[in-house]
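stage 2 :: seqdesign
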């Protein structure tokens, strides 16, 4: 079921070592986007529960929406530059040292 409903995340996850890391704001946004079907929301949450490490701390002083800002803050703390975001413009954000992000869902080329 997961591969059929979420082909891009499942494919991206298959090629990555280690756990996926996210936070509550991102999980909340995904569930909101999946509001067209309660089963899709449940499937995502079950998948997330088994595949993700949940980071709960966030900051709100970045010029971005809550989910993006919290993901940038999470990446800062963990020194991660590879993200998986359905926001095609996520790469406009920068870490404090000015490094950009590589969005696995919107790779150049």
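stage 2 :: out
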């Amino acid at each position: 079921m997961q591969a059929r409903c979420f082909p891009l995340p499942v494919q991206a996850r298959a090629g990555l070592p280690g756990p996926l890391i996210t936070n509550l704001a991102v999980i909340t946004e995904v569930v909101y986007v999946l509001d067209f079907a309660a089963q899709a929301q449940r499937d995502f949450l079950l998948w997330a529960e088994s595949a993700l490490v949940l980071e709960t701390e966030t900051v709100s002083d970045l010029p971005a929406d809550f989910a993006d800002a919290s993901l940038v803050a999470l990446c800062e703390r963990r020194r991660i530059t590879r993200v998986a975001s359905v926001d095609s413009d996520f790469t406009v954000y920068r870490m404090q040292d000015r490094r950009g992000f590589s969005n696995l869902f919107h790779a150049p080329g």
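stage 3 :: structure notes
- Residues 25 and 65 are 10 Å apart (CA to CA).
- The longest strand covers residues 20-23.
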